[in-house]
Amino acid sequence: MGELEIRAATAEDLPAIVAMLADDPLGAQRESPKDLTPYREAFARLAADPNQRQIVAVRADRVVGTLQLTVIPGLSRRGATRSLIEGVRIHAEERGNGLGSQLIGWAVEESRRSGCQLVEFTSDMTRTDARRFYERLGFTASHVGFKMQL
Amino acid sequence: MGELEIRAATAEDLPAIVAMLADDPLGAQRESPKDLTPYREAFARLAADPNQRQIVAVRADRVVGTLQLTVIPGLSRRGATRSLIEGVRIHAEERGNGLGSQLIGWAVEESRRSGCQLVEFTSDMTRTDARRFYERLGFTASHVGFKMQL
């Protein structure tokens, strides 16, 4: 396999990112890869927020992974800053080769660099393989995640 | 009971907010209400971030509740913006009178006003009363929440 580069996403990466968001059991019902307009608008919002990092993993000029990291200041835990990981996706042809661990590892290191004391994320309970994967990477499944659609 | 006001927190509210963060089974081990320095520094970070709302509920000139709401743009779910609730605390003398529901209701409405399509938060699994409370307010306990301390 060619060398892997992890870098900030650009607007040119959007078609590949959205294709990965949609190529997923849950994403298939939620995403609209044929209409990129809402994603372009969202990308502009991300680019304007210094606490956001949308990153891509690139191998042989192809986008093969992505995640979003948000840095969140806060008062609790003695004024701890935390980071939140969202939207982890690995290209179908790259699954099972350690790229997911590399991306999460990047997010943890970037969180440290950004002064975070805690990294967190939630995973849908239907993703039954996720738990062991994340526990192996050092995360603790200590919380219940609640959501409400508006 | 006197009238309730829900408003943005100011630096003057910090002693009362930190006292509530510490008056909690988990917070008691994590917070340092006698040293406000890290909280003052964190409050400055919150104040500088337009996607942050640290709010307080005030009754009869006393701070009786608080929560933090973060607005998070994103690509997934067709470019949906979400909001994250953290650090919900109710003063011991106000528990059980509906103030928690009012604070969460404020957060949901503020999320709508801010263009969010989703509200989310996690609750420590040891808070066994929380689940029924949040489900009654319309949240779904659909996710596992993972954390890693750095």
Task: Explain what this protein looks like in three dimensions.
2 copies of one chain form a homodimer. By secondary structure, chain A is α+β, with helices and mostly antiparallel strands. Chain A has one domain: Gcn5-related N-acetyltransferase (GNAT) (Aminopeptidase, 3-Layer(aba) Sandwich). In chain A, 33% of the residues lie in helices and 33% in strands. Chain A contains 6 helices and 6 strands. Chain A has helices at 14-22, 27-30, 37-47, 76-79, 99-113, 130-136; strands at 4-8, 52-59, 62-72, 82-90, 118-124, 140-149. Chain A has a 5-stranded mixed β-sheet with strand order 1-2-3-4-5. In chain A, strand 4 (82-90), helix 5 and strand 5 (118-124) form a beta-alpha-beta unit. Chain A is globular. The termini of chain A are far apart. Strand 6 of chain A pairs antiparallel with strand 6 (140-149) of chain B, so a sheet runs across the interface.
